[in-house]
Design a protein that fits this description.
single chain, 106 residues, mainly beta, six-stranded parallel sheet, 0% helix
Length: 106
């Protein structure tokens, strides 16, 4: 809903108020909101991406959580995951974090 989706995307999950570049995959049970996903990004089942920028060919593994809703503090910011980075299963990326190396899951 209220999203811009480029051709070649495969969306089986939920996408709201986001921009998805070409060949982005959002698998069943995944949630993407208020985010920008660059070409080839993959969001696996049960993962949550909110208020985030996800780099080209990045993979957000099952159950991972990237970003949080604004909390009104000055410290809050959009979470950023760089290109070709994998965020491991069940891992969490805090608001304002800038991740440019893969993060292992739980």
């Amino acid at each position: 809903a209220n999203s811009a989706v480029a051709k070649g995307c495969c969306i089986d999950g939920e996408v709201k108020n986001s921009v998805l570049s070409v060949n982005v995959t959002v698998k069943e049970g995944a949630q993407v909101s208020y985010s920008v996903l660059m070409p080839g990004a993959v969001v696996e089942p049960g993962a949550i991406v909110e208020y985030a920028i996800i780099g080209e060919n990045a993979v957000i593994k099952a159950g991972a959580h990237v970003g949080t809703q604004p909390d009104g503090t000055e410290e809050w910011g959009v979470a950023t995951v760089g290109p070709d980075v994998t965020i491991g299963e069940g891992a969490a990326v805090a608001a304002g974090a800038m991740i440019y190396e893969s993060v292992e899951g739980k």
